[in-house]
């Protein structure tokens, strides 16, 4: 099966990460899917931003935790990040805005729960309900470094696609994934080998390493037969799958 290409935070190598223009660029170049990160505002709205704090991606002009801002306050922040001169003001999208846009295409969407530092009340329940309301169950992969969140998602839904994220070497990751009743692994690319890819797939576990930006590495993981690769440069990666 052909290795799918997921745009990391959209097309984060060429556009402001986790913004609508970044997601639209990934779609424009033909990516199979996008990866995005979610947090929750003070008033309980799920928003798409990687860090638990707002400082890095809002050009250093704001500080503090996402959880301490209302949606109205969040929407005033400019997350054009290092691309400000090129694209101008970019706002933080809500997950609902992304899902509304997703109705116009067939992209797969990897939703990453950023629940490692902040315990957002009912974020798993709210997200799964939104996925169901939009009829996106067959296009979603949920991932997280917080595996408790994944276990909670599995208790809520027996069918949603789940994948464990991890940074360090993990012994027989396919076995761990099965024990948690998840469907895939999203390992840091330096932790895996061809054998891990092959053994995982033999055990019915999808393998989608992140974040692969070097073209040699992209080619290597495509040759390994990874289910997908996650990259900041989907256009570059797609050229290697032709």
TrEMBL record:
PROSITE patterns with a match to the protein in the record: GP_PDE
Recorded superkingdom: Bacteria
One Pfam family matching this protein: GDPD
SUPFAM superfamilies cross-referenced by the UniProt entry: PLC-like phosphodiesterases (SSF51695)
InterPro entries in alphabetical order: GP_PDE_dom, PLC-like_Pdiesterase_TIM-brl
Signal sequence interval, chain numbering: none
Domain GP-PDE: 3-241
CDD domains in UniProt: GDPD_TtGDE_like
Protein name, entry field: Glycerophosphodiester phosphodiesterase
